[in-house]
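To whoever is on call:

I kicked off a structure prediction for a single chain this morning and the downstream step that reads the tokens threw a length-mismatch warning. I double-checked the sequence; it's 390 residues and nothing unusual in it as far as I can see. Pasting both halves so you can look.
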Amino acid sequence: MKLFISRFSVMCRLGMSEEEVIDAFRQEKFPELEMTEGYLPGGVKVPLGRVNVPFTPSGSGPSRNDEMISQAVSQIADVITEAKKRFTAERVGAVIGTSNLAVSEVEQNIVANSASPRQLCYDARLSRIGDLSGIFRKMTGCGGPVYTVATACSSSARAFISAARLIEAGICDAVVVAGTDTLSRIAVAGFESLGVLSLEPCLPFHRSRSGMNIGEGTAMCVLSHEMLGDRSTMLMGYGASSDGYHISSPEPTGTYAAIAMKDALKAAGLKSSDIGYVCLHGTGTKLNDGMEAKAVAEVFPDVPASSIKHLTGHTLGASGILSEFICSLVARGEITLPFHPYDSADVDPVIPEFCLVTEPDTVAGRPYTVSNAFAFGGNNAVLVTGPCRE
């Protein structure tokens, strides 16, 4: 079955729409991550991929995530409307990937309602990952299945897989796929406590990399068995695996990540030589980059590959769909390949060698792309994207 991906709505550090992100790549002018206080104790500044979405929390009303989702829906409202007209609302579903929903509002609620650090109190209704589905249904008018996927940093890539299966099973004709996560002190401090947060702009796969930067973002598209609107690409195939190696550390050999990549290629009916670009998960940590390098060197040793985490920060549950968005732009020929801002001689010599992009490049006649998303607990998801073909 052919699966078409509509144009995207997007809000991230790179831009607040498809057009803004495309323009940033064409001009090679990328906003720097913002050095920010207030997320770590002692006034320590940390680089963050902040998004300019004004929001004043009410304490009991919508969260900042809700606001970002609402703005993202408005960017592709015409595509969602077209899907409902063509298939009826009952045949249009939605799957939303997130890992960190409303945590910042929970933090503020705890501070406002707790008598002391030993007597913490907060409104549990604010911590509602699943409730995003109900809010999303009201925003979009989707009458089919609507649910939330929360598998940490692979959440929105997994949302694509869930959406594809809803269509392949004949349950839906079209599915809105979304991913969203916003900044919170708990997330930033949590990664700092794991020793994987960098206080400098991150450098994935660099010999001197010191960890990740956290970002925030929202992206959305419509997946369907028929083309909807312009600027479409195709989801050619997908693969997934779960190694269960450790609650937070990746399986070090990259075996299960490679399995997901091979399964995605097989599902797409493609060979590694057909792929023109791999959007890496590439967080900038020693363990993640080392594991992914082993898997990519095995499956895609000669394919140009790069991460976007140094441009957006690690957007956690939204990172999968943002990588897929970049892959769709590459497959459509809208942008050159994302590149790492350092010389190839500075790539970590300890990791296996592969084709890391360190200067502007194109897919050179191979328009098929791959995006990787790897998460805590060994939850791996890989998507293959290509240009539209009737």
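Update from on-call: the warning came from a stale cache, not from the record. Cleared it. Sanity check on the structure: The longest strand covers residues 233-242.
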